[in-house]
Amino acid sequence: MNTVIRCQDLSKRYGDLLAVDGVSFEVQQGEIFGMIGPNGAGKSTLMECVEGLRTRDSGTVEVLGMDPAKDAAEIHERVGLQLQTSALPPRIKVGEALQLFSSFYRNPGDWRKTLRDLGLDEKVNSYVDKLSGGQRQRVFIALALVNNPELIFVDEITTALDPQSRHAVWDVIRDIRDNGTTVFLTTHFMEEAERLCDRVAIVDHGRLIALDTVTNLINSLDGETKLTFTVNGRPPIRELQQLPSLIHVERSEGRVVARGKGRTFAQEVMGMLADLQLVAEDFRSEQPNLEDVFLSLTGRPMREGSGQ
Ligand code: ADP
């Protein structure tokens, strides 16, 4: 298998803040490689250093065998970069934008075919700023594909989308991978990482704290149980925190979510509820997910503002 991106000991500092701290990883040809982590973890900075849009302070980076700090122009011929809306002139039509961006490259592909593949052929004469959020994101994907790239970078592409448009964009990204283009993306949606990525790197405080397939990351939580329930009274957060087998407890959307270790954890929680004369409704044991992996690695939930 060919290595498309190779990063060794990459660091980037903004003043006193070490935003990327000695990160090493490789991305292989034909995979969807995802980076997840809380806001401010350093994902965008890391991606921008790899893209050559930001200058790294130290470490080595190779993209398609080239150094983005030296060969940015050549790399940009062969990779797809996702643009922000602000990069487009105002009141530009979809077809005009694709024509314009195609003119920037030596060997542009057939953008009309790309529009068809993305289900946008009827929008060729529509103004970009009149499209729905999902359609606009697909236009940005089409723009990132105008040069038939070997690798595309996608940063938080589904953040502003409703669930239906998000699923449509996932299908598009899978098709891009299935057509042989490597995809390097960042997301803060765990479900997106779980459903879409072949391998996931977890980033926290500028460091890479885990890297594996989703299945392997979740299997690494062997022996952890996640219980969710509602109670007919004050949620017994403090009492649960006294249980030695508890890893973490929080309230989420009106439910108590308790994670713990050991085969007797569920029994201990039920026993405690009974002692407190609380009736648990809808008591469920759930499959762990990537959020649980993050919690297990860091002791903190990944989402901002969560907790009790
Ligand atoms: P993420 O993409 O994971 O949310 P970022 O790479 O955007 O993380 O940010 C990492 C850290 O660097 C954050 O603390 C952020 O505030 C800081 N940061 C990002 N860009 C800049 C910048 N241009 N100047 C100074 N600090 C920055």
TrEMBL record:
- InterPro entries in the record: AAA+_ATPase, ABC_transporter-like_ATP-bd, ABC_transporter-like_CS, ABC_transporter_ATP-binding, P-loop_NTPase
Protein localization: Cell membrane
This protein's record includes keyword ATP-binding:
yes
Q: How does it sit in the membrane?
A: Peripheral membrane protein
For this UniProt record, give its keywords in alphabetical order, as a comma-separated list. Answer: Antibiotic resistance, ATP-binding, Nucleotide-binding, Transport
In this chain the ABC transporter domain maps to 5-230
Q: Does the keyword Cytoplasm apply?
A: no
Q: Which Pfam families match?
A: ABC_tran
Output one GO MF annotation. Answer: ATP binding
User: Which PANTHER family does the UniProt entry name for this protein?
Assistant: ABC TRANSPORTER ATP-BINDING PROTEIN
Protein's name in the database: ABC transporter ATP-binding protein
Q: What is the lineage of its organism?
A: Bacteria, Bacillati, Actinomycetota, Actinomycetes, Kitasatosporales
